[in-house]
Amino acid sequence: MFNLSESSLHLITERLHSCGWCVVDDALPAEAALALAAHAAALPNEALHRAGVGRAGQHQTLDTLRRDHIVWLDEQCMPDDIWLGAMTQLQQHLNQQLYLGLQMYEAHYARYQPGDFYGRHVDAFKGQSNRVVSTVLYLNGNWPVDNSAGGELVLYTHEASHHIKPVLARLVVFLSEGLPHEVLPAARTRHSIAGWFRAGG
Questions:
Q1: In whole angstroms, what is the distance from residue 142 CA to residue 151 CA?
Q2: b/e map of 72-88 (b: 16 or more CB within 10 Å)?
Q3: Tens digit of pLDDT for each residue in 64-108?
Q4: Using one digit for the tens of pLDDT, what is the confidence trace for 20-71?
């Protein structure tokens, strides 16, 4: 079992409380991050499906908003249990420190092929969803330091836009409600694990 470090947990708690978002580099030990990255890259295309927008009966695919492909994590499978175990640890910590009442976590692998993107959106609209905290773990080794590969996450706050490169083992945590963000078009294949902590049912 791989856990987040105490310093990472403290940073996430402090930043969520103070500004609503946080970036943690090397969130997992290299062995765990590489295992997840290898698994994501090895997933056959037919194992993933087109991601959509909306929930339940309102779910639909929408090329003008997002074009990534996803498959949900399974806690009974390796190495999915590495990440889900770490998120159980984070859930317990956030409930203890910030009293968020988080009750469950769900996550999927996301694959962005060249040209794929996810337009500006929020993960939860006020009063309409029980998503409370969003997470993104990046699984891309040797990602270019310049902007040639695209695929950056852009978080929009009241003060500025924040561009975050999808480098291996980088974790982004942010409040789901009311924090707009997008994924810029990728110029090479890009892998991540996107997840959400929920409160309520």
A1: 14
A2: ebeeeeebbbbbbebbe
A3: 788 899 999 999 999 999 999 999 999 999 999 999 999 999 999
A4: 999 999 999 999 999 999 999 999 999 999 886 555 444 445 677 888 999 9
H-state helical runs in 19-110: 30-42, 80-98
What are the structure tokens assigned to 92, written together? Answer: 């317990």
Closest by Cα among 162, 51, 163, 47 to 116: 51
What six digits make up the tokens of 38?
A: 């290898």
Report the mean per-residue pLDDT for the chain.
91
H/E element, 15: helix 6-18
A 10 A CB-CB count for 51 gives 22
Other C-beta atoms closer than 10 Å to the C-beta of 62 total 13
For the CA atoms of the chain, what is the radius of gyration? 16
Quote the CA–CA distance of 83 and 135 in Å, as a whole number: 11
Integer Cα distance of 29 and 1 in angstroms: 11
How many CA atoms does the CB half-sphere of 201 hold within 13 Å?
1
How is residue 161 written in tokens? 């836009």
Strand partners, 105: 197
CB-based contact 94:100 (threshold 8 Å):
yes
